[in-house]
Design a protein that fits this description.
Layout: H1 2-19, H2 30-50, H3 52-59, H4 67-84, H5 92-99, H6 105-115, H7 118-146, H8 150-155, H9 164-171, H10 173-198
Helix pairs in contact: 1-7, 2-6, 4-5, 4-10, 5-7, 5-10, 6-7, 6-10, 7-9, 9-10
Length: 200
């Protein structure tokens, strides 16, 4: 949870610095943020490629375990798309793109900012940070109320890293393996699905 709050503090600091015009002009150019996105995508690839435990889980996968990330995808995108019907300011595609972040706030918010707008990118950042914090705080209640798989689904892409310790603590090591697998799959799919949804 400390890491999530740290990210939010950096985000707020960036807003204040930009609003106060403390940021050098060259940092505000669109090309600069594109290069940062390329670097982030490279780092994500390096992280996934170098995680031997995660790759081993992928190799040993049972077909039934595919239902875990599939459930997260359908639930996250479906519920956020339905949410758009309740508000006037977001289209179904915009809202679904935010849901397709699956808790991966850094990558999804940058992608959405680049492809759509800074406003929707900010919404994606906050929504996905809140998802991670919610999982960290309420994993025990989720497991007790909805079953041991609930914290894995709630964690989304973060189930492979930041929310993994709390998931294994409340659900057990068996669900920890499912969490790593689901998190890896969702992390890989975030740029694919966000790009696909926003292309409409």
């Amino acid at each position: 949870m400390k890491d999530s709050l740290f990210i939010v503090l950096f985000f707020i600091a960036g807003l204040l610095a930009s609003y106060s015009q403390w940021i050098p002009e060259f940092l505000l150019h669109q090309e600069f943020s594109t290069y940062i996105l390329y670097l982030l995508m490279f780092v994500v690839g390096v992280g996934l490629g170098g995680d031997k435990e995660a790759l081993d889980v992928l190799r040993k996968v049972n077909l039934k375990i595919l239902l875990v990330p599939l459930t997260v995808i359908v639930g996250s995108i479906g519920s956020t798309a339905l949410f758009a019907l309740l508000v006037d300011d977001l289209s179904v595609a915009e809202s679904a793109a935010v849901g397709a972040g699956f808790g991966y706030y850094s990558l999804s918010s940058i992608l959405i900012s680049e492809m759509h707008s800074e406003t929707l990118g900010t919404i994606a950042l906050l929504a996905n940070v809140i998802r991670e914090i919610f999982t960290l705080l309420f994993a025990p209640a989720l497991a007790l109320t909805f079953g041991k798989l609930a914290p894995v689904v709630s964690g989304g892409a973060t189930a492979m890293d930041t929310t993994l310790p709390i998931i294994t603590r409340v659900s057990g090591n068996k669900y920890g393996l499912m969490a790593v697998f689901s998190g890896v799959v969702l992390t890989i799919l975030v740029p694919v699905l966000v790009t696909f949804i926003l292309s409409f």
